[in-house]
């Protein structure tokens, strides 16, 4: 389970939230997430593939040149995993950082909790 959870964490970061192409993003969502998935982010809760795709696409459109970079190694515990990450323009200090926590069911992401960190000003 831990290898699959690590894979899900990394692929979600790059293929869902880091993906600018809507067709590839939608295919990744279908492959990586359960049909009844839930996304918990500061703006609210988004349920299902359509809502996740809309949120990820709109977020990506606000900063299409940003890259997501894992910080450290993912950790797993039973059916959950977490991965710290940073996001910003390539080669520059990150604009923001956070931690993704996922709940895995049947080899797919059933829930994603995104915790954003406050960056020093």
TrEMBL record:
Residues 15-111 form the SnoaL-like domain. It comes from the Bacteria. This is Nuclear transport factor 2 family protein. It comes from Paraburkholderia madseniana.
């Amino acid at each position: 389970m831990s290898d699959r959870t690590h894979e899900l964490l990394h692929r979600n970061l790059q293929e869902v939230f880091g993906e600018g192409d809507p067709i590839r993003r939608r295919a990744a969502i279908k492959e990586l997430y359960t049909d009844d998935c839930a996304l918990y982010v500061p703006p609210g809760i988004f349920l299902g593939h359509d809502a996740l795709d809309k949120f990820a696409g709109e977020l990506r459109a606000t900063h299409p040149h940003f890259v997501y970079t894992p910080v450290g190694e993912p950790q797993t515990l039973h059916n959950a995993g977490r991965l710290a990450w940073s996001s910003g323009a390539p080669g520059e200090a990150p604009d923001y950082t956070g931690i993704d926590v996922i709940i895995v069911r049947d080899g797919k992401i059933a829930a994603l909790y995104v915790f954003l960190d406050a960056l020093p000003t």
